[in-house]
Amino acid sequence: MGILLRRSVITILVFAACLLTPLHTAVCAGKPRDWHTGKLLDSANASHPDSKRVVATFHIEGEMYAYLAQERMKRRWSKPAAVKTNTPVKFAVVDRKLFLLDQNGKEHEMEIVKKILRRPPQPRKPRDIMA
After folding, report:
1. What are phi and psi of 87, to 5 degrees?
2. Which of 32, 35, 42, 48 could bond 59 through an S-S bridge, CB–CB 3.0 to 4.6 Å?
């Protein structure tokens, strides 16, 4: 009797997991991100003084804004985004989060520390050349 009860409980759990997995995927996927192309100006890694966690800082210049973002490594063996300085990068901004695609196509989630409005280039006035 106990074995039959265990089998039915396992069957119900497996069935529930199969039903909930597509629902979870659909809810977590959300709407597609609006990807932009920018330039990675600088990146640096630093250890947090209170713990052994590593924080990677990225300075990304977009068309309208420049962002200073930090990626906190969740585990000791986690690696920061594999990107090169002064190269084009793809990124998306959602609220206070910045998502960066590295050279391997892996998506990295970061917290925006600072958002700086870039000044549009001022049109130059033509000089009057006196002959």
Report:
1. -120, 155
2. 42
